[in-house]
Amino acid sequence: MKAISRTSLIAAGLLLLTACASDPRPQHDFIRVMERFGGTLPCSDCQGIHTDLILKRNASTGAPAGFYLHEVRIDAPGGERVNSVWGQWSQYDRDGNLQSELYVLQPEVGKLRRYQASADGKLQPLDDRGNPINSAEGTPVVLKRLASEVATL
Fold first, then answer.
1. 36 phi and psi angles, rounded to 5 deg
2. What pairs with residue 34 in β-bridges?
3. Mean of the pLDDT values across residues 119-147?
């Protein structure tokens, strides 16, 4: 009788332990709800334009949700000039290439701005014709990712 109750007790304990076991960790999808980029862009009448760009996304869907762009013209004639714009932005696959996305910024005031996103997390500004902007030396100019905030779905 003792052997049966001991076996029953061990079996019940094992069942209890297996009932408490959990499934492997669930996969989480992450959304960058805020991305910040910075760098110095070329300027025809100054030493450069220090650029700080913040892109926001909807935390639930990942859809573009707004941007803020702050620019400082370094050593511009008459002193440093500051320009800040904000508005909405859109994201597109460029020519069906998933490694090259196009970000289009539509400020509330001013003209469209276009950036080509690369797989390594950099943004290259594009001119009005969609061509990459290069430095006076001919090297590509990029804004580097400075910070990101992520949310899980």
1. -120, 135
2. 56, 149
3. 91
